[in-house]
Amino acid sequence: xxxxxxxxxxxxxxxxxxxxxxxGSNGSLSVMIRNTHxxxxxxxVSKRKKIFGVDYIFDLVEAYCYQILKCPHNLQIKWTHDVLxxxxxxxxIESHENIQKAYDLFLKTxxxxxxxxxxxxxxxxxxxSLSYDLLLSFFQSRHCVRSYQKKKxxxxxxxxxxxxxxxxPSGCNRQPFRVIFINNSKMLKSMSSLLMGMETFRxxxxxxxxxxxxxxxxxxxxDRHLIYVDSGMFCMSFMMxxxxxxxxxxxxxxxxxxxxxxxxxxxLKLKPFEQxxxxxxxxxxxxxxxxxxxxRKQVDDIxxxxxxxxx
Length: 311
Fold this sequence. Notes:
NADH Oxidase; globular; alpha+beta
C-alpha cells in the first residue's frame, strides 16, 4: 500500500511536469533552473565550446519567458537572464537554428531587473578560512533536544535559518521542496498528533516544520530520490543554522504509511504530487535539560578505500 501510494505520487509528478504550464506544476521552473545550471557549467569549462546547449536552449528560453511573466521579480529569473545573455555572447548564434530561434525569443522577452547592475554569473572561487577543530566542536555541540521552554519561536528567526540552509547543494540547483512552519498552538496540537516518535515530549513542542518534496520537478522516474537527498542536505544545514541562532531542534521521521499520508496531505493542503519527507520540532532548549549520548559510528566503520572491482 505504502509503496503504491508513493509510486502514484511519482507518476502524478511526471504528469504535472509534462503539463508544466498548467495545474500548479513546478515543471517550467525546474526546466529553467536545471538548464540554466547546465549552461553555467558549459561557461566555466577550461576549453569553452563555440557551440553547446543546442538540445535544451530553446526549452530554457521558453520556460524563462513563462516564468518572467509569472514571477517577474524572482532573483532566479535574473540569474537565468544573465547566464543566457553571457551564453549568447559566447556562442555563434547563427551556427545552429535552435540557438538562433532561442535568441530571437530571448530578445522579445521583457526584462524587469534593469536597475540591478550586479551580474549573477560564474565567478572565481573564494575560500573561507575556518579551523577543523572549531567546526568539529560546533558539529559535536548539536544534539536532538526533546525538552523546550514555553518561549515562542519567532518567524523572523526561522527565516534567518532558512536563508543559510538554502545555500545547501541541490541536484542541478532545483531545490525540489518547500517548508511549512507552524507555531500556532491549536495547529501544533492537531499536527503533532500525526507524528511518531515524540510521545514523551509532544506537549513541550512550541513549533514544527514540515519539509515537503515535490515530484513535479522531474520528468524521469530515475530522479525520484532527489526530493529525499536534497531535503536531507537542506535539513542538516537548517538545523546547524538554528544552533547558531540559539535554537534547538529534533528531526522527526515521517514513515510512509498510506492512510496517515492521506490525513497529512489534507491537513497541509498538499498537491497530489507532493510528499512529506520529514518534520522538525524546533524551540529553545530548557536550561539544564538532558540530551542523548547516541554514540556514532567511527570513520573506519564506514570507510572503504580503493576497494573496487575493475576489468
